[in-house]
Amino acid sequence: MAEIPHLKSRSSVHKSFVRFHNKTERKVDVIWINYEGHHIKYKTLLPGSFYDVNTFVTHPWLFIDSETQDRLVVKSKEVFCPEPFRHFRREEVPPRLERTHIHITIPVYSLRQRCLQVLRNNLSQPEDALKLELPVSLQKELADMVRESTRTRVISNH
């Protein structure tokens, strides 16, 4: 998973309380981008499960398929930036915190991208991509995808 340049958490006093829902059939790594721009894995969500996080509005989050390292999305965006906390249930005394529900989904891939993902999932070494009868540019892209899916650059937090 390539790190996104210039994306990192910043200091903030504005809290956000979220519940990440895995709406996919994949295992999803919940990743916080820290103050140095490093990816910190908070949790791996099983399909259909959720995870509550207390965070800040200036803290970006990513969601990655645990097995393939493909990026997943929230509202069609690869990076989730929390919104300020505003929700209480007024009917309860005292008012109870209402978390913002965030649905993690699979992006809509182009046919080209999906085909490359399927090929990548069937190759064990980046060099195997160079043996396929494909244009050199696709061989190189596929080799990079295989290399990326076998590399773990995420630091485990919990």
From TrEMBL:
<dbReference type="InterPro" id="IPR036208">
    <property type="entry name" value="VHL_sf"/>
</dbReference>
<feature type="domain" description="von Hippel-Lindau disease tumour suppressor alpha">
    <location>
        <begin position="109"/>
        <end position="144"/>
    </location>
</feature>
<dbReference type="Pfam" id="PF17211">
    <property type="entry name" value="VHL_C"/>
</dbReference>
<feature type="domain" description="von Hippel-Lindau disease tumour suppressor beta">
    <location>
        <begin position="8"/>
        <end position="84"/>
    </location>
</feature>
<dbReference type="InterPro" id="IPR024048">
    <property type="entry name" value="VHL_alpha_dom"/>
</dbReference>
<dbReference type="InterPro" id="IPR037140">
    <property type="entry name" value="VHL_beta_dom_sf"/>
</dbReference>
<protein>
    <recommendedName>
        <fullName>von Hippel-Lindau disease tumor suppressor</fullName>
    </recommendedName>
</protein>
<dbReference type="InterPro" id="IPR037139">
    <property type="entry name" value="VHL_alpha_dom_sf"/>
</dbReference>
<dbReference type="InterPro" id="IPR024053">
    <property type="entry name" value="VHL_beta_dom"/>
</dbReference>
<dbReference type="Pfam" id="PF01847">
    <property type="entry name" value="VHL"/>
</dbReference>
<dbReference type="InterPro" id="IPR022772">
    <property type="entry name" value="VHL_tumour_suppress_b/a_dom"/>
</dbReference>
<comment type="similarity">
    <text>Belongs to the VHL family.</text>
</comment>
